[in-house]
Amino acid sequence: MERLTKGDGNCAWAYKDGVLLEPCELAYAEDRTHIIGELMRRLASYEDTGLGPEDMATIKLFAASADSEKSKRLLELSEADAAGLLVVWPCKIGTTLFRVWAGEIRRYHVVSINAQNHIGLRFLVECMPFMRFYWDDEIGKSVFLTPEEAEKALEVQYGKM
After folding, report:
1. pTM to 2 decimal places
2. Within a 10 A sphere around the Cβ of 144, how many other Cβ atoms?
3. How far is CA 89 from CA 26, 57, 60, 81, 113, in A?
């Protein structure tokens, strides 16, 4: 597709057949209606995407990716997400969770994760030792994925570090 415009971020210029059209030339060009109409159609198509210049730069990098298998997989995941088939788990089995308890930070290891869909999708995370269970919405509030998060919670709860 032939470019109709070029710009430098501050100004844009119209081109016809690769030749710069001065504003007065565009105003008097015999086919100015066609040129302006084509500019408007292309702008409308671009604006219909809802994407901005930064988004287009990202898409261009993605499209230029040499690894087509990754591109195909990302497309599959995007389509699954749009269809409501993609679920992001709160953590993975084997993850260490950290909990503030009695002024200390305790470690628990995730041994299973169960999806529950009684009132919306929720995850029940089972940890050892002591067969502890946590709902996914507790992660980041009462149990944490990193010891640093737990230390901050300990400081807030008990005023010590």
Report:
1. 0.52
2. 22
3. 57, 30, 30, 13, 8
